[in-house]
């Protein structure tokens, strides 16, 4: 353990267009590394929601959305919520049919998806002076120094120890569940 977080730069991964044409997704990290959509334990990505449309269904999964930019309205059988860049992270069942509607322009959201039977995600907004968790990932919602490194907006650090945060950020940690 070096104590210096490894950084995943915002543009490192490819941006993939959604099948429905309503947005794009850029994968940040997946576990196990290299796992495909049908065999990951957890996945963290950034999604740009450009047009209204249905979210992909992920039966057996739990999703947590955190809006980074814009406003996003979500509706479904058990869901009616309007998310902004200051809203708390919003968790929902990946099997629930959700309609996403960006309000006043595209919305950018951090998306943590976990396999319900094996993992859970804890997602929290942090601000200047807050301390990051000791493990997990930290997305910089604005440029900042994080310990010894400079992070551009939307860069993501792999955490190896708790450290003070210098600006708006979102911390994501994953934990195994079950026997």
TrEMBL record:
Q: Which species expresses this protein natively?
A: Novosphingobium soli
One Pfam family this sequence matches? HutD
Identify this protein by name. Answer: HutD family protein
Which InterPro entries did the record assign? RmlC-like_jellyroll, RmlC_Cupin_sf, Uncharacterised_HutD/Ves
